[in-house]
């Protein structure tokens, strides 16, 4: 896909350090090998070096010797990271014993490396659950200034080129926050617009979706969306955003003319923000399966530095793409 190629080119031109906590996971290792061969990122693998080298040899990989390998049990900065962890979690009552235990957990270690400036981004989740990947990131890296909520976006490539940006959309939140309030929904919209710019190479036109268009129905659920619209407009007055809109009014110009003729976004939205996680997660999976769209993600947005969670059913290509996207997020986060 042309868009992913652009992300590859940007990553190559400004190499980022990406830490992979699941250093022994075969698809992760295969993707790391290709990333190194293509010169896309500096790769840091966490795990026992002898075991990683043996696995790489078994898989016939030729470039893993270019990666930095850190053994969580045995490395020079273990105490420094342990102290940082205690400091960051002292308000939560973390003891030295707890920190000693967590600092050797690769998912915590990866976040501590990012927090210390020793890595620029993390990709994990081929082996671990979403919750286990996200928790340390939410606890240690936290959100970027101005935002309090992390969300998960999908890049959706539809074969129907008449919709969105030539068939391309950002969908969010499809992965993280179960039931955002209006404030959080506004922040998800702002973060999704940023993702559209930094990863999607497009100027965002954001639709806050609901089952009503511009007052056609009334309920507390709709009030949440209209309130989110007002908050997002205050946060980013120049952003092209509208809501509440039904999905057809958001993306089909003929329906938009009927239902929301005054809207700057209706009929041509390229960023779709769902009212809660249930809707977002169900919607992207249906579009992928019944609409034959390609869905890339989830891309976590709103974090102070990028951490991305893979699906446990991911392919080597998925891991490669997510590492490339993480590099681009890291580049954008430093601007
Ligand atoms: N944004 C920012 N910070 C958050 C968020 C969020 N969305 N959610 C939790 N946090 C912070 C909390 O403030 C807390 O910080 P603190 O410890 O410094 O006070 C910390 O993260 C832990 O919060 P908990 O609520 O205790 O975290 P918990 O572990 O219960 O849950 C999680 C967080 C894992 C993200 C949870 O909300 C979750 O499981 N979400 C759904 C994930 C999921 O299953 N998605 C669908 C599958 S993915 C897919 O299909 C593509």
Automatic annotation (TrEMBL):
Regions annotated as coiled coil: none
Phosphate acetyl/butaryl transferase domain: residues covered: 5-327
InterPro entries per UniProt: P_Ac_Bu_trans, P_AcTrfase, P_AcTrfase_dom1, P_AcTrfase_dom2, Phos_Acetyltrans/Butyryltrans, PTA_PTB
Lineage: superkingdom: Bacteria
Principal EC category: transferase
SUPFAM superfamilies per UniProt: Isocitrate/Isopropylmalate dehydrogenase-like
Molecular function (Gene Ontology), one example: phosphate acetyltransferase activity
Name of the protein described by the UniProt record: Phosphate acetyltransferase
Record organism: Porphyromonas uenonis 60-3
Keywords on record: Acyltransferase, Transferase
